[in-house]
Design goal:
By secondary structure, the chain is an alpha+beta fold. It contains one helix and ten strands. 14% of the residues lie in helices and 21% in strands.
Protein backbone atom coordinates (compact mmCIF):
# COMPACT_ATOMS: atom_id res chain seq x y z
CA UNK A 1 0.00 0.00 0.00
CA UNK A 2 2.83 2.43 0.87
CA UNK A 3 4.44 1.73 -2.52
CA UNK A 4 1.19 2.51 -4.31
CA UNK A 5 0.79 5.81 -2.43
CA UNK A 6 4.44 6.72 -3.05
CA UNK A 7 4.15 5.85 -6.73
CA UNK A 8 0.92 7.88 -7.03
CA UNK A 9 2.58 10.90 -5.44
CA UNK A 10 5.56 10.58 -7.79
CA UNK A 11 3.28 10.45 -10.84
CA UNK A 12 1.32 13.46 -9.57
CA UNK A 13 4.52 15.50 -9.08
CA UNK A 14 5.73 14.52 -12.57
CA UNK A 15 2.53 15.73 -14.24
CA UNK A 16 2.45 18.95 -12.23
CA UNK A 17 6.09 19.75 -13.02
CA UNK A 18 5.62 18.92 -16.72
CA UNK A 19 2.60 21.18 -16.98
CA UNK A 20 4.48 24.03 -15.28
CA UNK A 21 7.45 23.71 -17.63
CA UNK A 22 5.41 23.48 -20.82
CA UNK A 23 2.88 26.25 -20.06
CA UNK A 24 4.14 29.54 -21.44
CA UNK A 25 1.92 32.60 -21.43
CA UNK A 26 3.16 35.97 -22.65
CA UNK A 27 2.85 39.32 -20.85
CA UNK A 28 0.24 40.65 -23.31
CA UNK A 29 -0.86 40.31 -26.94
CA UNK A 30 2.01 42.52 -28.17
CA UNK A 31 4.50 40.11 -26.56
CA UNK A 32 3.14 37.12 -28.52
CA UNK A 33 5.10 36.16 -31.64
CA UNK A 34 2.88 33.14 -32.38
CA UNK A 35 1.04 30.38 -30.53
CA UNK A 36 1.51 26.61 -30.47
CA UNK A 37 -0.97 23.85 -29.61
CA UNK A 38 1.71 22.11 -27.51
CA UNK A 39 5.41 22.06 -26.67
CA UNK A 40 6.16 19.47 -29.41
CA UNK A 41 4.35 17.93 -32.38
CA UNK A 42 2.26 21.11 -32.44
CA UNK A 43 0.21 23.10 -34.88
CA UNK A 44 0.53 26.88 -34.83
CA UNK A 45 -1.69 29.95 -34.81
CA UNK A 46 -1.09 33.64 -35.38
CA UNK A 47 -0.62 35.91 -32.35
CA UNK A 48 -4.26 37.07 -32.22
CA UNK A 49 -5.87 33.60 -32.19
CA UNK A 50 -8.05 33.10 -29.09
CA UNK A 51 -8.86 29.36 -29.16
CA UNK A 52 -8.05 27.81 -25.74
CA UNK A 53 -5.81 25.12 -27.26
CA UNK A 54 -3.27 27.86 -28.03
CA UNK A 55 -3.39 29.70 -24.69
CA UNK A 56 -0.59 27.86 -22.80
CA UNK A 57 2.19 27.61 -25.38
CA UNK A 58 2.89 31.09 -26.64
CA UNK A 59 6.21 32.08 -28.18
CA UNK A 60 7.00 35.42 -26.51
CA UNK A 61 9.42 38.21 -27.34
CA UNK A 62 10.28 38.51 -23.64
CA UNK A 63 11.66 34.94 -23.71
CA UNK A 64 14.28 36.28 -26.09
CA UNK A 65 15.49 38.92 -23.67
CA UNK A 66 13.39 41.77 -25.02
CA UNK A 67 11.51 44.07 -22.66
CA UNK A 68 7.76 43.41 -22.49
CA UNK A 69 6.04 45.71 -24.98
CA UNK A 70 3.16 47.91 -23.87
CA UNK A 71 -0.26 46.27 -24.17
CA UNK A 72 -1.54 48.97 -26.49
CA UNK A 73 -1.62 50.08 -29.15
CA UNK A 74 -1.36 46.70 -30.89
CA UNK A 75 1.98 46.62 -32.71
CA UNK A 76 2.12 46.24 -36.46
CA UNK A 77 3.52 42.90 -37.67
CA UNK A 78 5.06 44.26 -40.88
CA UNK A 79 7.59 41.97 -42.51
CA UNK A 80 11.08 43.33 -43.18
CA UNK A 81 14.41 41.87 -44.28
CA UNK A 82 15.16 39.45 -41.41
CA UNK A 83 12.17 39.57 -39.07
CA UNK A 84 10.32 36.61 -40.63
CA UNK A 85 10.07 34.06 -37.81
CA UNK A 86 8.27 31.28 -39.66
CA UNK A 87 5.79 30.69 -42.48
CA UNK A 88 2.34 29.22 -41.69
CA UNK A 89 -0.12 27.31 -43.87
CA UNK A 90 -3.11 29.07 -42.23
CA UNK A 91 -3.96 31.46 -39.39
CA UNK A 92 -4.83 28.56 -37.08
CA UNK A 93 -4.28 24.77 -36.92
CA UNK A 94 -1.33 25.44 -39.21
CA UNK A 95 1.71 23.53 -40.33
CA UNK A 96 4.86 25.58 -40.77
CA UNK A 97 7.97 25.98 -42.84
CA UNK A 98 11.28 27.74 -42.31
CA UNK A 99 11.67 31.31 -43.57
CA UNK A 100 12.98 31.32 -47.12
CA UNK A 101 10.82 28.39 -48.24
CA UNK A 102 8.26 29.19 -50.94
CA UNK A 103 5.34 26.78 -50.58
CA UNK A 104 2.20 28.20 -52.17
CA UNK A 105 -0.45 29.24 -49.65
CA UNK A 106 1.97 29.78 -46.77
CA UNK A 107 2.31 33.27 -45.29
CA UNK A 108 5.10 34.92 -43.31
CA UNK A 109 4.80 35.47 -39.55
CA UNK A 110 6.94 38.47 -38.62
CA UNK A 111 7.84 40.28 -35.43
CA UNK A 112 9.35 43.78 -35.28
CA UNK A 113 12.80 44.09 -33.79
CA UNK A 114 13.81 40.46 -34.37
CA UNK A 115 16.55 39.44 -36.75
CA UNK A 116 16.05 35.75 -37.48
CA UNK A 117 18.22 33.08 -39.03
CA UNK A 118 17.66 29.35 -39.44
CA UNK A 119 19.75 26.24 -38.86
CA UNK A 120 18.98 22.65 -39.78
CA UNK A 121 21.23 20.97 -37.20
CA UNK A 122 23.16 21.85 -34.09
CA UNK A 123 22.69 24.88 -31.87
CA UNK A 124 21.93 28.50 -32.62
CA UNK A 125 24.99 30.74 -33.02
CA UNK A 126 26.49 32.24 -29.88
CA UNK A 127 24.41 35.18 -28.70
CA UNK A 128 21.16 34.01 -30.30
CA UNK A 129 18.27 31.95 -28.96
CA UNK A 130 16.10 29.29 -30.60
CA UNK A 131 12.68 30.94 -30.93
CA UNK A 132 11.06 27.69 -32.05
CA UNK A 133 11.85 24.53 -33.96
CA UNK A 134 10.27 22.57 -36.80
CA UNK A 135 10.05 18.83 -37.46
CA UNK A 136 11.16 19.40 -41.09
CA UNK A 137 11.97 22.36 -43.33
CA UNK A 138 8.46 22.51 -44.82
CA UNK A 139 4.96 21.14 -44.02
CA UNK A 140 6.19 20.70 -40.47
CA UNK A 141 4.89 20.41 -36.95
CA UNK A 142 6.38 22.90 -34.50
CA UNK A 143 7.95 22.76 -31.08
CA UNK A 144 9.55 25.02 -28.54
CA UNK A 145 13.22 26.02 -28.98
CA UNK A 146 15.18 22.77 -29.02
CA UNK A 147 12.46 20.21 -29.74
CA UNK A 148 13.61 19.62 -33.34
CA UNK A 149 16.80 20.08 -35.41
CA UNK A 150 15.35 22.78 -37.71
CA UNK A 151 15.54 25.91 -35.57
CA UNK A 152 14.66 29.56 -35.99
CA UNK A 153 17.29 31.56 -34.10
Amino acid sequence: MKRLIGFSILIFIFFISFSLVSAITCANQNDVILKLSGATNAHAAIFSEILPIYSNNEICSTLLGQAAPAASPIITRTCAANNVVVRLSANTNAHAELPGQTTSGYTDVCYPGLSCSTITSGNCPLGSTAVLSLSSQTDAHLGIGGAYNNKVC
